[in-house]
Amino acid sequence: MKIVKKILKWVSYSLTIPVIYLIVSFILTAITVEELDQSSENRKIIYLNTNGVHLNIVIPKNDIDINLLKNLVLMENEKYISFGWGEENFYINTPTWSDLTFRNAFQAMFLKSTTLMHTTRYKYKSKNWIEVRIDTSELNKLNQYIQEYFKKDDKGNKIILTGFEYSTNDNFYKANGSYSCFRTSNTWVNSGFKESGLKSCYWTPFDFGLINKYK
Q1: What CA–CA distance (Å, rounded) separates 94 from 100?
Q2: At 36, is the pLDDT very low, low, confident or very high (cuts 50, 70, 90)?
Q3: How far apart, in whole angstroms, are the C-alpha atoms of residue 136 and residue 139?
Q4: How far is 130 from 50, CA to CA, in rounded Å?
Q5: For 158-173, what is the mean pLDDT?
């Protein structure tokens, strides 16, 4: 009988923790951190896009800092580059929700693991991207934020990971930082917006959290 009670207690805790996590996540996602500088002068445009799992920041190539462009795979006729950050195994083995397995999700959320930066190059703007207006100061901060997450070798070069691309227009690079249920690919984008002074969620693990702020 004691064993049964212990099992039921463990099951109860196991179910309660995810529910609490989701409730807190929705509450903090709904809280808006307003843009620090809301002037409308000298605005450029960047974008948010998602594949349903990973949220990405899309920046016109002409507005990307030269230091951030250094060592990236680039093509002359491609005009936009998206940036994302995430857990290495989850990124490589879970490009869409249909690829999600319990093992990959558990490892990403609860085990210490390496991370990657993911870049995708585009020739044209997509109608599905969400437009974000940004001034020069905010753009500079965002460029710097993204740059700091690329891991460098002894010569200061970005470290590309070959053979795991989703297509012919994307690449993975070794990244800094640890992934967890509190620091996901989507919280990374949200934190970049917040640190750059842009409108953001207080905290969110969801891709729709930040997107809904700009729709």
Answers
A1: 5
A2: confident
A3: 5
A4: 9
A5: 93
